[in-house]
From TrEMBL:
Gene3D superfamilies: 2.60.120.200, 2.80.10.50, Galactose-binding lectin, Immunoglobulins. GO terms for molecular function: hydrolase activity, hydrolyzing O-glycosyl compounds. One of its GO terms (biological process) is carbohydrate metabolic process. It comes from Flavobacterium profundi. Keywords: Hydrolase, Signal. It comes from the Bacteria. This is Family 16 glycosylhydrolase. Belongs to the glycosyl hydrolase 16 family. Residues 46-316 form the GH16 domain.
Length: 941
């Protein structure tokens, strides 16, 4: 049930749009991270419910009228009814003796200019839900055609729609055209049900249902009217999953849960509380009925709501009950401040937001803070002719205690020739402001262009402002004309002070932390590496009590806390709250970032080179007891190593290909040697410890935790673990990898860059794509599949997993074009949009499009420009071109698509390739350049 009929549909696919979006949050730019499903899933106990045995006015309000009284005629959706109190009541459930339910009844009944009446309730300012599994048991009447039942939610923030967010748990009554657009052409109005979310996007409103490849409305085998069905959302800080429970089966209403993130402007509204609405509309945009005569549904029609329940879900979920009043604040209230002691303070993104009006200001880092670490610093855009910005509360603040003796204080640095005003707003459209003329000293501000302190009595901001429910706690804008050239200004340390000396004043907190037991640092920004230990020890040390909150439901009640072996999932804000002897609280937030240090878990089925980048040496063995070293570019089986799991998270390190497969050991001396793996002595166990930057220490457990060394002469020995020289760090490079064989009857596409293969399989359920990495770690963190039936289109994105088949939603015979975005083991990501692959649904064929045919014709021409000989080959293959410069690159791949060799042509006419180390079999040679791409086969004997 939308509050506006202007929809901004996400044509690019919801996942790709969310992934590309950015948030302008305070002074930081943060990208949206795709979130995968929780590692555990658990429905917890009921934390709130209404079984509608009576109508509870302390929890629900009846909406009255047709919306015109609030300037939203037809409730923003061209609805035809007027909501009336008598159309909402508690009634007996048909066929369920002794059970009662909420009844919302639509009638042929005149009310004002409307010829229909119906019922609607909401829990605004009474019941607010924040996360959890929300379940509603609903029975709808015959909807055909014109009735529009809905179970939905709106954000409790005082922001306008869609900035507050909307969650539609259930909507029915869709027009045939709307159902056709979703591909449900055989559905009826009584068998089709959908869900949705609405949110702000640049230039309009976004929703997820418009992406037909992502949306998955439920089409029931039997009509859903006149029987009960359950509708659910599973809501947690990273995602919302929509389902319908029909009988014994539960069906998802989207291909994947909707990902949300508090640090993303698009989805941040869904990380805040929502209130619920239940209604049965007559006509409107969704059913496509805009005139009274087009309503054909039998009336009266009754929508029954048996219950609303909220469970804990994965440990998340809370419900706040309110009488609609906002408790009064007192003391020193922080709007934007770091070090000033405050009774309470606003937090951007949580209970407040900072807005720039009309893009008239550009945030910068040109002016240092007046206090603390943060500042609101700007450059104006003089071409706009004005400027404005403000800090609003999301849920309203009661500042009535400040009207008598209170003041608004802040620091500002602004050119003396700029006239500006400072204002406030309430949540009833009232505003007040005071002006600061250019060059005039006012409220303590000396107009010299430097930082100045301003103190404005709240009484000067009085008038009609309702201080018991404030929205904008601070607002700044130009007062009259602005200078013709751009200027810079900054604001800091914004607080409200109530002026009541009897109020318990807050105690200032000094932040301290120590990393790995080292010296204390007084700061709130903490940068760690995974595995570090962090101790927080804020002061004062006496005179009150402490409490802590943090990520993953972290909580503590001591002043000093220690987190050992910290990992990336423990990053975030750790807030310490100090309650002093007279009962006032002060808090400090430590922002903790954790950089993941590269880890290495060797695959027992693969072999590796062990190299030392500092000395450009690679460890080898000659099959005797003497290890040797070689240049880091050396290849060959005698310098490949295999890791075999040993006790205590350690490994035996075996040489592959050496005589007797010798094993790396020390014989309890400072020097490292080799013995055959059949040797009966005590074997050395090696632990692999991250050293940072993709390098690792090798530490032996048998010799008092001594670390393996490789010096410039290539000598291997061991030293104590307290030695931290750079030359004791190693890298591990995979020497070979055999990808799993593709399923029988499948076919394979090979990525142009050799990072992965794609296996295409077909069965009775449809066609599937499986991403098969050719290097360890490819796609482990992020893997997104983009596909479409049109080559030149915007491709929707879908979360995928390496080596897990992904089902393609298309019709047999259609050509599917696809590419991937995937994470790299060294950090960062690759995108193969410029090297799209394709296949035909239901087969392994490539596209038969004219483009493909033309490419084939072109390839025949290219093949005539060069020759490869001898073929079959033994130790060398020669590639000879008709003239130099015809091609630029040569790539050789084995039969599984793994790249064996990549080489530049360097304007040579004849190139010789060493094939001595190639295993027997078929290889593919690919030549590419400005003339195109050509492929041929060679056979190694």
């Amino acid at each position: 049930m939308k509050k506006n009929d202007f929809y901004y549909f996400l044509r690019k696919g919801i996942l790709s749009v969310l992934r590309e979006s950015k948030i302008k949050f305070c002074l930081f730019i943060t990208g949206f991270l795709l979130i995968t499903a929780s590692s555990y899933s658990q429905i917890g106990p009921v934390i709130w419910e209404d079984n509608f045995n009576t109508f509870n006015t302390s929890q629900w309000t009846k909406d009255i009228g047709d919306g015109c009284n609030i300037g939203l005629c037809g409730w923003g959706n061209q609805e035809l009814q007027s909501y009336e109190a008598n159309n909402v009541y508690i009634g007996d459930v048909p066929g369920e003796a002794g059970n009662k339910a909420l009844v919302l009844e639509a009638k042929n009944q005149v009310s004002g200019s409307r010829v229909f009446t119906s019922g609607k309730i909401n829990s605004d300012n009474k019941v607010a839900i924040h996360y959890g599994m929300v379940e509603v048991r609903v029975r709808v009447p015959n909807l055909n055609q014109g009735l529009w039942p809905a179970v939905w939610m709106l954000g409790t923030s005082n922001l306008a729609w869609p900035a507050k967010g909307e969650i539609d748990m259930m909507e029915m009554g869709f027009s045939q055209a709307a159902r056709n657009e979703q591909g449900a052409t055989s559905s009826t109005v009584n068998t089709y049900v959908g869900a949705n979310t609405f949110f702000p996007v640049p230039g309009g409103v976004g929703n997820i249902a418009s992406d037909v490849n992502y949306n998955k409305p439920y089409v029931a085998a039997a009509p859903l009217n006149d029987r009960f069905v359950k509708y659910r959302i599973y809501w947690e800080p990273t995602q919302i999953r929509f389902t319908v429970v029909d009988g014994a089966n539960e069906y998802d209403l989207y291909e994947n849960p909707f990902p949300i993130d508090a640090n993303n402007s698009v989805t941040a509204p869904f990380t805040r509380p929502f209130y619920m609405l239940l209604n049965l509309a007559v006509g409107g945009t969704l059913p496509g009925v805009s005139s009274n005569g087009a309503v054909t549904a039998p009336l009266p029609g009754k929508m029954y709501v048996d219950y609303v329940r909220v469970h804990k879900w994965n440990g998340y979920g809370s419900v706040a009950l309110s009488d609609g009043t906002i408790p009064a604040e007192n003391g020193t209230f922080g709007v934007f401040t770091d070090t000033t002691p405050t009774t309470k303070k606003l937090t951007f993104g949580s209970d407040s937001e900072f807005y720039i009006f009309g893009e008239t200001l550009i945030e910068n880092n040109a002016i240092a803070p007046a206090e603390g670490a943060n500042v609101l610093s700007f450059t104006n855009d003089s071409s706009k002719g004005w400027f404005g910005a403000g800090i609003t509360t999301l849920f309203g603040k009661n500042m009535s205690s400040y009207t008598a003796n209170g003041s608004l204080k802040f620091k500002i640095k602004i050119p003396a020739n700029v006239s500006f005003f400072i204002g406030v707003n309430d949540n009833y459209t009232n505003a007040a402001q005071v002006n600061f003329p250019a060059g005039q000293t006012k409220y303590g501000l000396v107009r010299n262009g430097e930082w100045g302190q301003v103190t404005i009595p709240i009484s000067d901001l009085g008038g009609l402002v309702a201080f018991q429910d404030m929205s904008y706690m601070f607002r700044i804008g130009n007062d009259g004309a602005i200078p013709t050239s751009n200027f810079q200004f900054a604001i800091d340390d914004i607080v409200w002070v109530d002026g009541n000396t009897t109020v318990c004043q807050p105690t200032a907190i000094t932040p301290y932390y120590a990393i790995n037991g080292q010296n204390w640092t007084s700061n709130t920004t903490v940068s760690l590496q995974s595995g570090n230990s962090i101790t927080f020890g804020p002061q004062p040390t006496t005179g009150g009590s402490w409490s802590w909150t943090g990520p993953n439901n972290f909580a503590a009640t001591t002043r000093e806390i220690t987190i050992s072996n910290i990992q990336s999932n423990q990053a975030g804000n750790y807030t310490a709250t100090f309650t002093n002897a007279c009962g006032t609280t002060t808090n400090v937030t430590f922002n903790v970032t954790v950089t993941t240090v590269s880890t290495f878990v060797p695959d027992p089925n693969k072999t590796y080179y062990i190299a030392n980048p500092f000395h450009n040496k690679r460890i080898g063995a000659n099959g005797s007891e003497d290890p040797f070293s070689a240049a880091i570019t050396t290849t060959g089986s005698t310098v490949e190593w295999k890791f075999t799991a040993a006790p205590n998270n350690s490994y035996y390190i075996d040489c592959v290909g050496g005589q007797g497969n010798p094993r790396l050991r020390s014989d309890n001396t400072d020097f490292t040697d080799m013995q055959p793996s059949s040797y009966a002595g005590t074997w050395e166990r090696w632990q692999i410890t991250p050293a940072g930057n993709g390098k690792f220490y090798l530490t032996t457990l048998e010799s008092n935790l001594r670390r393996l060394q490789l010096n410039s002469a290539g000598v291997l020995k061991q030293v104590g673990t307290d030695s931290q020289d750079t030359w004791e760090q190693f890298t591990f490079t995979e020497a070979s990898q055999t990808p799993p064989p593709p399923p029988v009857g499948s076919c394979t596409r090979v990525a142009a860059n050799g990072d992965f293969n794609v296996t295409i399989t077909n069965n009775s359920e449809g066609s599937f794509l499986t991403f098969v990495p050719n290097r360890t770690g490819i796609g482990n963190t992020t893997l997104i599949l983009y596909y479409s039936t049109a080559l030149n289109a915007t491709y929707p994105g879908y979360l995928a997993q390496p080596n897990v088949p992904f089902k393609i939603n298309a019709t047999s015979g259609q050509t599917i074009y696809f590419y991937y975005t995937y994470s790299l083991p060294t950090g960062g990501e690759n995108n193969t949009a410029n090297d799209k692959m394709n296949f035909v649904m239901g087969s392994c064929n490539a596209s038969t499009s004219r483009m493909a045919n033309e490419m084939g014709k072109n390839e025949n021409v290219l093949n005539a420009l060069y020759s490869v000989y001898p073929n079959p080959v033994t130790n060398e293959a020669t590639i000879e071109m008709q003239s130099a410069g015809l091609f630029e690159n040569i790539v050789i791949m084995n039969s599984t698509g793994q790249i064996i060799l990549k080489e530049k042509c360097n304007n040579q006419q004849k190139i010789t390739i060493n094939t001595a180390d190639f295993h027997s079999g078929i290889y593919f040679v690919q030549l590419s350049g400005k003339n195109g791409i050509s492929n041929c086969k060679i056979v190694k004997q």
